[in-house]
């Protein structure tokens, strides 16, 4: 251990002039508030290289102590499973509230209890004598129903209104 800071410890790698950082989150599987409670300057520890980054033409090494047995130096996470899990935990929460929810399918049924469309009697929440709710028909369905009623009354008006819509 070369130096200890409030956010981790810099480790001098033998046979290399480089130092790597063991962040306090990678010192132990338990929560670490002060890295100085775990390591001191001059201690020898086993570490695993978990990341490299080029920044300002300098190579920065990320090291981990928690995936290495400190007694034997054996790699406890050879397939980097726990590192992948840590990465997933750190990902940002995505806000999906602005996205519109659309129904892909609607039940083509009529409730025997209330007579409304779109649900079964066992899913009906209407109390006897209460307000009845049903699904709002699509715009196309309303136009077809309205056109059908108007055709029975005045067929010439329906043709005129459909021509106006097209323009």
In short:
Keywords: Acetylation, Metal-binding, Nucleus, Phosphoprotein, Ribonucleoprotein, Zinc, Zinc-finger. With 167 residues, the chain is an alpha+beta fold.
N-to-C SSE string, H for helix and E for strand: EEEEEHHH
Supply the CATH superfamily name of the domain at 3-91.
Nucleic acid-binding proteins
The spatial strand order of the largest sheet comes to: 1-2-3-5-4
The separation of the N and C termini measures: 80 Å
Number of E strands: 5
Mean pLDDT: 77
Helix/sheet category: alpha+beta
CATH class of the domain at 3-91: Mainly Beta
CATH structural architecture of the domain at 3-91: Beta Barrel
In angstroms, what is the radius of gyration? 34 Å
Helicity, as a percent range: 10-25%
Fill in the CATH topology of the domain at 3-91.
OB fold (Dihydrolipoamide Acetyltransferase, E2P)
Low-confidence stretches: 149-158
Shape: rod-shaped
Number of helices: 3
Please report which band the strand proportion falls in: under 5%, 5-15%, 15-25%, 25-35%, 35-45% or over 45%.
15-25%
What does the largest sheet look like?
A: 5 strands, mixed
């Amino acid at each position: 251990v070369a130096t200890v800071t409030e956010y981790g410890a810099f480790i001098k790698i033998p046979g290399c002039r480089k130092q790597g950082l063991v962040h306090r989150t990678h010192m132990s599987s338990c929560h670490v508030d002060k890295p100085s409670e775990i390591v001191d300057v001059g201690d020898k520890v086993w570490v695993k290289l978990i990341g490299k980054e080029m920044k300002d033409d300098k190579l920065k090494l990320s090291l981990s102590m928690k995936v290495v047995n400190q007694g034997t130096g054996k790699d406890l996470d050879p397939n980097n499973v726990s590192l992948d899990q840590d990465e997933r935990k750190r990902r940002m929460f995505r806000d999906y509230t602005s996205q519109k929810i659309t129904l892909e399918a609607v039940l083509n049924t009529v409730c025997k209890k209330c007579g409304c469309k779109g649900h079964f009697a066992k899913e009906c929440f209407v109390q006897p004598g209460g307000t009845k709710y049903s699904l709002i028909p699509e715009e196309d369905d309303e136009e077809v129903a309205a056109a059908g009623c108007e055709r029975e009354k005045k067929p010439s008006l329906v043709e005129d209104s459909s021509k106006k819509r097209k323009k």
